[in-house]
Amino acid sequence: MFEAVVAGATDPQIEGVTLVRRPALTVSPAEMLAADGYLLGTPANLGYISGALKHAFDCAYYQILDSTRGRPFGAYLHGNEGTEGAERAIDAITTGLGWNKAADYVVVSAKPTKADIESCWELGAMIAAQLMA
């Protein structure tokens, strides 16, 4: 799923957009401030976002709160059971930040299908296309 999102976001037809990939445990508030948009990916273990993604937001939330309002984001989630709690967490955090949900979440249960992978590609392309200069 990650590779498909990256492939969509780096499609040759998308110009003027640089994709920066950071693991949630290492992304800094400064890097989040420098970004013009966001693609969030997380497993939905135990019905919630990963601890790593939660940690990233815990460390950066108040530092980025006023400066990132209105920025577009998209998200993809993978869970073997319900993802509703993870979706609610992303909604709550990004609503608080004032981010603009620029695409429907890609939510996958069990093994990703070809259609799921295509949806991930489209998600990456859609968010990156919105950022073209």
TrEMBL record:
Signal sequence region: none
One example GO MF annotation: oxidoreductase activity
Gene3D superfamilies: 3.40.50.360
Domain NADPH-dependent FMN reductase-like per the UniProt entry, residue ranges: 30-106
Gene source species: Nocardia panacis
InterPro entries named among the record's database cross-references: Flavoprotein-like_sf, FMN_Rdtase-like_dom
Pfam families linked to this entry: FMN_red
Name of the featured protein: Flavodoxin family protein
